[in-house]
Amino acid sequence: MELRKYLLPGLISVTLLSGCSLFSGEEDVVKMAPLPKVENQFTPQTAWSTSVGDGVGDFYSNLHPAWQDGTVYAADRFGVVKALDASNGKEKWKVDLSEKTGFFSKNISALLSGGITATSDRIYIGSERGQVFALNNSDGSIAWQTKVAGEALSRPVVSDGLVLIHTSNGMLQGLDQSTGAIKWSVNLDMPALSLRGESAPTVAFGGAIVGGDNGRVSAVIMNQGQLIWQQRISQPSGATEIDRLSDVDTTPVVVNGVIYALAYNGNLTALELRSGQILWKREIGGVKDMVVDAGRIYLVDQDDRVIALNADGGVAIWRQSDLLHRNLTSPALFNGYLVVGDSEGYVHWINTLDGRFVAQQKLDSDGFQTDPVVAGDKLLIQAKGGEVYAITR
């Protein structure tokens, strides 16, 4: 049974596919923090904005733009993929990956969800239908299309001639980058109940490091598809099944031989890369990807606190708690500031030294769900309704 997350204005609502109840008694109401009042120290500018299809609506999705060699690539859930000029947002090409049904019938949605990942000659994107597409950068034509073991909810990761896909049923698969042929599959195991979303792997020294829905971090040798170690960083506990969720849905970060991983209802943990041995852990849970830079970890916890910690020991440096339950995106580090979007369409700029707000802007009425992406001198962020914004400092 898999837990789907639908992000609604003001709260996170969880709906079970099987219809079984997780709650006893009345359901708690989570209140969104009011918009903090910010006196802007500078005014962020929108360099351009453009629509890419119909976005993702209220469905959980990891769709976000990618940037490569002066081109921005973006997609919507239905199947529209566009290449845009990064300088002005003008369309270079557009393709539609939805399934054609006939002259008079509406196409069947491709349910794009995992991606986009861009390389020098191709872009890669996955779908809830278990399809992974490789498109040629020049015109969007399909180089190959492969059916994988389950829903491809996280972004593809390209390294060492492989495209790595972590599917919703706990499989990590390595696809040949040139042909899409499946070279190997590793079963990472998963519990009966999990959050909707999967950890994208990170690669280091020929290994793929990935989080699992079972609360473990795993290391896999990429050229063989062989599991070399697993380490549990979150132990299920609590009175309800929701309390016992322990997914590691975030992308692990590797810096100087240390893996930093974050679990829902669990821990922020530092692991030794080669052995998986735990170096330290802190009782912080979350599902959003984090940033590690200049000896600091920046993350958004599961209650939407923005936290900065020392990477050597995990000591908290500051906490920003004025955005609680605003359904924040993962943070991005841009021009020396930490930037997060929220579900009401605001973008918040935070001083990395002390956690104070330095700027705030309202961009989109549909709100934001997925990561801001740094694209040279611009920051890209895609709204749930499909609008892509390029922001400058």
TrEMBL record:
Q: Which UniProt keywords apply?
A: Cell outer membrane, Lipoprotein, Membrane, Palmitate, Signal
Q: Has UniProt tagged this entry with the keyword Membrane?
A: yes
Query: Where does it reside?
Result: Cell outer membrane
> Topology versus the membrane, per the UniProt entry?
Lipid-anchor
Any coiled-coil regions, as ranges? none
Where is it mostly found?
Answer: membrane
Which stretches make up the Pyrrolo-quinoline quinone repeat domain? Answer: 78-320
Record-linked HAMAP family: OM_assembly_BamB
Q: Which family does the record assign?
A: Belongs to the BamB family.
Biological role = Part of the outer membrane protein assembly complex, which is involved in assembly and insertion of beta-barrel proteins into the outer membrane.
Subunit structure of this chain's protein: Part of the Bam complex, which is composed of the outer membrane protein BamA, and four lipoproteins BamB, BamC, BamD and BamE.
Name under which the protein is recorded: Outer membrane protein assembly factor BamB
Question: What organism does the UniProt record list as the source?
Answer: Pantoea rwandensis
